[in-house]
Design goal:
42% of the residues lie in helices and 18% in strands. The chain starts with a helix and ends with a helix. Helix 10 runs antiparallel to helix 11. The longest helix has 14 residues. Strands 1-8-9 form a 3-stranded mixed sheet. It has a two-stranded antiparallel ribbon with strand order 2-7. A hairpin with a 5-residue loop joins strand 5 and strand 6. The protein is of the alpha/beta class.
Length: 222
């Protein structure tokens, strides 16, 4: 894990190793849907690449050929781009911020097995992307810190969104009981026109509230 980790005390190392769950890396909030919902809404399990495998070597050679060839057909390029959208390395380095016993905040690099996450991913279709005339984005640290998400949330890009109704939600996960109260109040204040079902609006709100799970309680009880 690097020099920073090796300089930590034994208690600090133990605390870090005991906090290696999905929420420790990605946050304590979540909205859960059923796998059937994902299948019906164009979600796809991603492909984890073992960099030492023959498959990965062949694929890398194909990408290299496309990059170095003029007049490649659009269909060929689209196929490569589609595959790249659903690819992730089998293992990689992730950074996490942690606090030492002194209260000092440090950043530690972890070697992570991404396959453990069993990720499903949504990627808008080619036609939707073309029709919205979205700007091309290269995923680098500078661009990812820009306001990409705020721009994509405007109605101009609605065809790219992954849409759902409140009744599609299976669970809403929040970190603690205080956040649960905040979410309950938020749900009670949702405008009626945002509910699509014909059943009683308050009943729908109460059902949505019943789906809230508190992460601190899950950790304690499960």
């Amino acid at each position: 894990m690097g020099e920073i980790y090796s300089n930590l005390s034994s208690d600090e190392k133990k605390r870090i190793k005991n906090n290696y769950t999905h929420t420790d890396f990605y946050g304590e909030y979540g909205i859960a849907f059923s796998k059937e919902w994902g299948e019906k809404n164009n979600l796809q399990p991603i492909h984890y690449l073992n960099e030492q495998s023959q498959y990965t070597r062949y694929f890398s050679e194909i990408v290299e050929q496309v990059l170095n060839t003029d007049n490649v057909s659009d269909a060929y390029v689209d196929d490569i781009l589609d595959r790249l959208c659903f690819i992730k390395p089998l293992r990689g380095i992730m950074k996490r911020k942690n606090k030492k016993e002194t209260g000092e905040e440090i950043e530690i690099e972890f070697q992570k097995n991404f396959h453990d996450e069993k990720e499903w991913r949504y990627v808008p279709g080619r036609e939707a992307v073309r029709n919205t005339n979205i700007e091309r984005v290269v995923a680098n640290q500078y661009l990812l810190e820009m306001d990409i998400n705020s721009r994509l949330s405007t109605r101009q890009y609605e065809k790219l969104w992954l849409l759902y109704n409140y009744e599609d939600i299976r669970y809403i996960i929040v970190p603690n009981a205080s956040e649960r109260i905040d979410f309950i109040n938020t749900i009670l204040n949702i405008p009626e026109e945002q509910f699509t079902s014909e059943s009683d609006i308050m009943t729908q709100k109460y059902i949505l509230i019943s789906k809230i799970l508190v992460l601190a309680e899950i950790r304690k009880d499960w």
